[in-house]
């Protein structure tokens, strides 16, 4: 059956935003918070268990061979996912929480297409690629705020961006790709240790509406897993769909199974295409200058990237104009309201968490396909929007491109679920 849109539309943000101080430090071991962001009965608590001050697992050093051997080498194979993830998905499906929206198909240079009889603009589908907005998802920041965030890291070009942000006392949200974390572990740590907020941009950057429910979970959960195991147990709260491609089904899987919420954007300079000749630095700078000198309501979330030097330079060029025009900058995940991580309290305290169920690392090295080179494809965006949309269909689909390297990671090394359950029972 088609899932009622209203049931999916629990607000991520209130109509009146209260901006938080976005400058913060990252420390793996902190006091236990009183509560998690997600309700205690949410499935994410079974997948990433709350434990005492440490979760009883000695994690491998980030970047070491042991660490690298802990995750899929390419697009995750759903037949090798932890059973706990599959069980959580099956439960959500059985309870009618996942809409029965068909998968799309797509070919290069075209938007994903739905089967005949399924209107992407209808509330039963509501595809962001087709300009439809699902109520409650984050498209804008509070008035006068510039939400700083970057897609497709970590990459070698990220280092200059991270250093620039740190030198200027600014924080940002890094929407990271799982395979890029594996391939650039020290850059990943540099982003985290420099105060960057970590969010998901999937594991290998696919069109999410083309995937079945199991593959959606795999793309998101493995990225959550590598971040969790590499940051003292942090569980990201936010994700951004590659190309902005998602609908009510994709959103429900991410939210109902993994507790994830969406942050999109309201402007797109198409900086991702500078390297391929799709746009020019001059065009990007012109667009940024126009938007930064424009109205301050709603606040800005500009789609920006860190996967090549030109995109990083475009932000550096725009930075003085952000300041000169009086915008208040902040990490977009912080401006969206509340905590950046699902197991973080309002003061930034994080609970190291358990991941349910160990699996055999030797079974996960095969994968199904790699994410290599550049891919050109549509990317949705808009030039203006409302922070908590009431179903207004604003925005614009645009052609997009992204370059991502292949991965080399395999299974995960979690244990101690019984200890966590005992802790919860206390």
Could you walk me through the main structural features you see in this protein, from its secondary elements to its overall organization?
The structure is a single chain. 27% of the residues lie in helices and 12% in strands. It has 426 residues and is α/β, with parallel strands linked by helices. The protein has one domain (37-103, 134-425): TIM Barrel (Alpha-Beta Barrel). The strands form four sheets. Strands 2, 3, 4, 7, 8 and 9 form a six-stranded parallel β-sheet that branches. Strand 2, helix 4 (158-167) and strand 3 form a beta-alpha-beta unit.
Sheet with the most strands, sense and barrel status = 6 strands, parallel
In the CATH classification, which architecture applies? Answer: Alpha-Beta Barrel
Determine the mean pLDDT.
77
Secondary-structure-derived class? alpha/beta
Secondary-structure map:
Blueprint: H1 44-47, E1 48-50, H2 65-68, H3 83-94, E2 145-153, H4 158-167, E3 173-176, H5 178-183, H6 185-193, E4 197-200, H7 213-230, E5 238-239, H8 248-258, E6 261-262, E7 267-268, H9 281-292, E8 300-303, H10 309-324, E9 328-331, H11 332-335, E10 353-355, E11 374-381, E12 396-403, H12 417-425
Parallel strand pairs: 2-3, 2-8, 2-9, 3-4, 5-6, 7-8
Antiparallel strand pairs: 1-10, 11-12
Helix pairs in contact: 4-10, 7-8, 9-10
């Amino acid at each position: 059956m088609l899932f009622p849109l209203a049931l999916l539309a629990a607000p991520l943000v209130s109509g009146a935003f209260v901006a938080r101080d976005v400058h913060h430090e990252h420390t793996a071991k902190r006091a236990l918070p009183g509560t998690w962001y997600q309700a205690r009965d949410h499935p994410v608590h079974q997948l990433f268990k709350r434990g005492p001050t440490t979760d009883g697992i000695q994690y491998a050093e980030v970047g070491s061979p042991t660490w690298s051997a802990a995750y899929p080498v390419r697009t995750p194979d759903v037949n090798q996912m932890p059973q706990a993830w599959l069980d959580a998905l099956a439960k959500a499906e059985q309870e009618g929480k996942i809409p029965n929206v068909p998968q799309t198909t797509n070919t290069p240079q075209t938007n994903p297409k739905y089967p005949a009889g399924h209107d992407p603009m209808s509330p039963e589908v509501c595809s962001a690629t087709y300009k439809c907005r699902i109520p409650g998802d984050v498209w804008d920041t509070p008035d006068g705020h510039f939400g700083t965030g970057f897609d497709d890291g970590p990459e070698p070009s990220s280092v200059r961006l991270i250093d620039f942000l740190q030198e200027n006392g600014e924080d940002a949200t890094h929407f990271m790709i799982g395979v890029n974390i594996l391939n650039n572990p020290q850059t990943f740590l540099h982003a985290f240790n420099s105060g960057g907020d970590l969010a998901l941009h999937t594991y290998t950057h696919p069109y999410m509406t083309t995937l079945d429910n199991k593959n959606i979970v795999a793309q998101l959960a493995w990225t959550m897993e590598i971040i969790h195991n590499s940051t003292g147990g942090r569980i990201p709260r936010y994700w951004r769909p590659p190309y902005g491609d998602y609908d009510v089904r994709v959103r429900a899987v991410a939210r109902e199974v993994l507790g994830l919420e969406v942050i999109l954007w309201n402007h797109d300079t198409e900086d991702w295409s500078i390297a391929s000749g799709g746009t020019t630095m001059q065009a990007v700078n012109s667009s940024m200058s126009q938007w930064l000198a424009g109205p301050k309501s709603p606040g800005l979330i500009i789609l920006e990237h860190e996967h090549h030097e030109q995109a990083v330079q475009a932000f550096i060029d725009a930075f003085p104009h952000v300041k000169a025009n009086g915008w208040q900058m902040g990490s977009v995940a912080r401006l969206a309201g509340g905590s950046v991580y699902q197991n973080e309290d309002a003061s930034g305290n994080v609970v190291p968490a358990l991941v349910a169920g160990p699996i055999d690392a030797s079974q996960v090295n095969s994968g199904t396909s790699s994410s290599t080179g550049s891919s050109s494809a549509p990317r949705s965006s808009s030039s203006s929007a409302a922070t908590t949309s009431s179903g207004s269909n604003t925005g614009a689909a645009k052609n997009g491109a992204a370059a991502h390297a292949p991965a080399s990671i395999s299974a995960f090394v979690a244990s101690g679920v019984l200890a966590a359950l005992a802790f919860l029972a206390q």
